Structures are given as structure tokens and as C-alpha cells.
Amino acid sequence: MTPEQTVSTEPTPASDHVKIFDTTLRDGEQAPGFSMSTAGKLVMARELARLNVDIIEAGFAAASPGDMAAVKAVAEEIGDGANSPTICSLARLNIRDIDASAEATSPATNRRIHTFIGTSPLHRDAKLKMSKSQILTAITDLVAHARSACDDIEFSPEDAIRTERDYLVEAVQAAIEAGATTINIPDTVGYTTPEEIQNLFAFLTSEVPGAAGVTFSTHCHDDLGLAVANSLAAVRGGARQIECAVNGIGERAGNCSLEEAVMALATRRDHFGLTTQINTPRLYPTSVALTQVTHQPIARNKAIVGKNAFAHEAGIHQHGVLADKRTYEIMDAEAVGMPSNSIVLGKHSGKHALKSRIEAIGLSADKARLDELFVKFKALADTQREVTDNDLVRLVTGSNMPPGRAGPWRLRQVEMEYAIDADHKPNARVVMEHEDGTSKTIIGEGQGPFDAAFHAVCAIADVSGRICTLDIHHVADGADRNVRAESVINIDGAEYEGSIREVDVAYAAVGAFVVAVNAALVAQGREKAA
Ligand code: KIV
Ligand code: ZN
Fold this sequence. Notes:
The chain is an alpha/beta fold. It has helices spanning 24-28, 38-51, 65-78, 95-105, 121-128, 132-149, 165-178, 194-207, 227-237, 258-267, 269-272, 283-294, 315-323, 351-360, 367-381, 389-397, 449-461, 505-523, and strands spanning 19-22, 55-59, 86-92, 111-118, 153-158, 182-187, 215-220, 241-244, 409-417, 427-434, 439-445, 465-474, 483-491, 494-502. The chain has 18 helices and 14 strands.
């Protein structure tokens, strides 16, 4: 059979287990804006271990002393024990890189060296300036060298998708003969399509001598938005390892998203007939941990872990979901560890949703009252993006408190001082008024002026709160108050949200914090809703 000929695209590899090879800490952190310290990598590695990934690619040991230290730290802490994930380090196909990876992964019980070299004409001629046969010799010699240092060797012909098929077969065969145990076929530039990659994997897994003794792996980039679809197609073609990253981070447009690939396999098991060992309820917490370690938020509409992934605002959808959530949901939010927030009240919501939410927060309204509340609810929803539980309490109880401010405290004044010399700490003077008519002033200190203001708010309200997220947007809708702040704070282990619109960034940020503190006080029953 000639290499370009098509083969059956439904092979029957031995196992129905697909290994999840996580590269968040290597390909992911390589991307601009995503670099992580050793401490940050350890936070993520702990999450990945709880998620139960098969392999953690912890870094590129030869890239810098910091990367070497990070891979070692992950190998020592996470790789200790027979049941721990395999800890892997990337290495170019040269002795120095391979030896650095061997050293960095040595503390791990299960470890892997992942070595690569470009094989496409562009990589051979423009980058490496090596002939085909020089590259084959390097593969033979250096994969063997890696294998003498470690039993688990992955080899990647970089830019495999743009490599001539017959030469790709030669490169892969040379790696297998030299001792590689996993063959990864990277779509380095995100160029392939599902049909093409499925066909390629079916061809390689059935035609390369020695293929049956190794695991084939897929590594897709998202330049055309096809990384997940291509990875799943590769699996259909015979791959039994998916290289992916949490939230899909990675070079340029990113890698295959771990959570999307895993949930596609789980949700459409009828179609793929394959399993992973991923502890799926850890998907959402792992995604959140990454956004916190890298300070890079994800889009609301991100599949599986975005804020909207299981949320419904439109009346027709809310009605359907309240009757039977399978009408508009193909997965359970709990299956991915997402806190249940499925009904979001906004201007598109209907009466069913309003009634259901009023009852869920322990209040009630008969039909006539509900009709009346619905009119007020719509008027309020037109002025703000979401109607929160606090707003509902205010509507139902008839409080006069302005929208979004149910609870005892109101922010009256903030003054911030941002010292630049070492003798002065940033501080903020905050004045708040209680509904009983008293007011309190406290000067807080912190890492920065906002931190100082948050400390002052907590001291005034007598809570111990910590900011989790703070988003500030400019809202271009012609209104005076065009700064919108949304914050999530943690008090005693529970999270509370606050949002507000103000004319100024400082007032908005601190105001949203106060709204969240009020929500906590009301929820904890320490104060009645105003
Ligand atoms: O995209 C790529 O080709 C890679 C290799 C190093 C596997 O990340
Ligand atoms: Zn890559």
C-alpha cells in the first residue's frame, strides 16, 4: 500500500481507555500572558492530580533554571507514589535537553521524557538546516539515549501534519525501533481538519511497523478553532492519548481544551465508545484555579466551564429547564463541578423563573402579587444586567434600598492613598453608613489602595472577607454611571457576589465589595434584608 492511500478509518486498537496528557504547565504556560512561577505550577499540579490526569507535562527542564526547579518540585510533590500521575518534561532531541529532563523528573515514581524534532520540509530546511537522513540518524541515536535514562519515552515529529507521509512513517518507525513508547503526532500549527487527521491516524496505527506496541497520541493546536474536533477525530482514527490543556491554553490560539475533549468523550460515549479516568466534578474547580494562578479570565460562553455554560436567561428556555432540565441541557452542571446557577434572572426571563427563584430563596408571592412583582422586576431588569437574589429580596419585601443594595451597609466615602516609598503602606479611609442611622469610619492598610479599602470595609462590617474576583467594565450605554464593577468575595468559606454601577472606578470597586458583604450578612442571618 502506498502511503497516500486511504485505509479504513475505524481501526480497533486494543484499549478503550484514552489517556489524558495535560500540557497546561508546558505548552500552556509557554503562551504570552500565561507564564507561571514554581508555586503557581504546584497549585495547578495539585489540581491536575485531583482531576486524575494520566500524565502531567510539568515543563521544559532545559529551558531555564526556573523550569528545571518547577519540574523537579512537581515530580517530588505530585509524582511520589505508584498511583501518582506520570510526570513528564519536554526535551529537544539533543543530549543536554534529554539529560536535563531525566534529572528533573527523577524524583517521580512514574516519569516520562518527551523529546521532539521538526520533520516537515519547512522545519528541516528553514529551521534545522538538516537533511532527512540526518534527522533520522538523530532520532535513532537520541531516542535510544533517552530510553537508556527512562523507560517511558514519548517522541514527537514536530509539524507532523505538514510532513510528507512516507517520511513521517520513516521517522515514527525509527523512534519506535530506538525505544519510544508513545508516538505523538502534533498538528503544531493547527492546520489539519477532522477527516484528514482521522485518516492519518488510521493509516499510521495500521501501517507503521511496530505501531501495535506503542500508544499513539494527538496534540492539536486551535489556530482554526478545530483543536477539539481534530483531537476527537484522531481518537476515532486510533489515537489513545490526547494532549490538551485546561481552558484550552497553549501557543497562539491554544491547545485542545481538556474539559471539552473529556466531556465530549463522556457525554457522547454512545458515539465514541471510549473512556477517560478523569474525575469530571473537578473540571470546574481546576479551570477556576488556572484563572486565579494566571490572572487570565475565560469567556462567559466558554464550553463546559464558562459562567453561561449551564445558565439560562431566556424565558422560553427557563420554562423548559424548570419543567425538565434535559430540554436545554445535555450535561449536568454537577458532573463538571459547576455550582448550580442555571436560572439567571434578567430582562429576558419570564414569570415561571421569577416565581421559582422567589420560592427558592424562601419567600412567596400569590398570583396577584406575582403579577405586580413581575412588572417591577422587568423595569429593574431593564436597568441592570442581572437581577440578583438581593434585588429579589428587596422587591418582594418592598424595601426602599436602591437596586443591588439590599443589606445594612451603604458606602458613603472612600479616600485612597497610594504611597510609593517603603515607609508608608498604601491605605484607604472608608466611611460607611448603617441602616440604623449610625456611621463608621476606618482607615485600612493593604498591599495596595483597593486592598486597603477592602480591609476597611471588612473591619466596619465585622466580617473576615477576601476578594476572589473583581471585574471592572466601562459600559457604553450613554448612562451617567458608566463604570460597572462585579466582585466575588469569600467569607467563612462561602462566596458572595456584588455588582454596582458608579461614575468612578474606586467607588465602583469598593461599592461592589460592600454589596457582596451585605449579601453575606443577609445570607448568614446576621442582618435582615433592608
Ligand atoms: O505543538 C507542538 O508541536 C509541540 C511539540 C513540542 C509536541 O508542542
Ligand atoms: Zn504544541
